[in-house]
Amino acid sequence: METKRNAERIKEEVSLVEFLSRLGHHPSHRSGKELFYKSMLRKENTPSLCVNDQLDVWFDHGGANLSGIKGGNVIDFALSYWHPITFGEAIDKINQIMTLPTKVASLDPNKQKRPRQKATLLANYKIQDIRELGHNHAIEKYLKKRGIWDQAQGKIKEVYYSIEAGPKKGKNYFSAGWQNENGGWELRNRIGAFDFKACLGRKGISFYEGSPEKLALFEGFLDFLSWKKDHPNASDSVIVLNSVNLLDIGIKKALSYKNIDVFFDRDNAGETAFKILKKELPHALDRSDTYSNYKDYNEMSLARRPALLPWEEENVYDKILATYKR
User: Fold this and answer.
1) Helix (H) or strand (E) run with residue 288 in it
2) pTM of the model
3) N or C end of the chain, less CB within 10 A?
4) What does the pLDDT look like over 103-151, one tens digit per residue?
């Protein structure tokens, strides 16, 4: 039963594209909704293993491998990749690589948690321009709404890019961009009622060198900049994981620090990530009690903001007109 529950959660939460990236495999090109890889399940010269990154399923057009499996979900891939392992062993390997807990925690049915966002890895894009903040009103509005406009100066850029293939080919986009140490851009923006989260290029952590003894560790840059807002004179070195799936890289970077404060999200993935980190770095301290009533540091920071005046609210005219409807 426990294995089955873990399998269901893996299928819901694990991005197949990110899983392949963690294994060192990256797409050769995109065609429509599918990413094409040179099959890592057998020898070939022409990429024929495709992944639908929206549905998180794969299919090998080149034929079956030694396992006899030609396609399926991330678990089917693991069974093919590490053939001839068992189903339970495949679950354990995925958990280890993606730093997921091996057991599903029981949740309080009366306590609702904000779902974690899954970042999209954009392929076949072209960066058109990188600008300093101040040229794009929508990006400025988004960062101000997250309460980090001042702290974002010099750290976040305006990233303009276009899609080069697929159904969105030729369309232009922009987002607030945070560069990781591999040169990739972690993107955030507000699109309609939803927060957009994606990555251009290779995923990686972000590191800011400060004190050689003190380190502050965060999951994302919104939390780091919110913390920086509260501690403008802090001299700590800083690691932003940009994804808990990069925890092992963050741990290696943190090994030399004597004092480590950890500000992970107060949810299942964040708590599990800290437990894994604590085994490698026993002296690390969990500082999530700082925002004990909130999911993360940014959420706490926003809750402290004073109420907006009527003319500062969004859609103020629609709200006013609604009061006159009969």
Assistant:
1) none
2) 0.60
3) C
4) 433 333 443 444 445 555 565 788 999 999 999 999 999 999 999 999 9
SS3 category, 51: strand
What whole-number distance in Å separates Cα of residue 242 and Cα of residue 301?
Answer: 19
Amino acid at the residue 31: S
Q: Which backbone phi and psi does 121 adopt, to 5 degrees?
A: -95, 110
**How far are the Cα atoms of 11, 58, 65, 125, 198 from residue 50, in angstroms, in the given order?**
18, 6, 14, 18, 20
Architecture of domain 206-303: 3-Layer(aba) Sandwich (3.40)
Residue 259's Cα: distance from chain center in Å?
A: 26
DSSP character at residue 118? P
Distance separating alpha carbons of residues 91 and 87, to the nearest angstrom: 6
Q: What is the third-level CATH fold of 2-97?
A: DNA Primase; Chain A (3.90.580)
Taking the C-alpha atoms of residue 226 and residue 146, their distance in angstroms, rounded to an integer, is: 9
Place of tokens 């990188």: 130
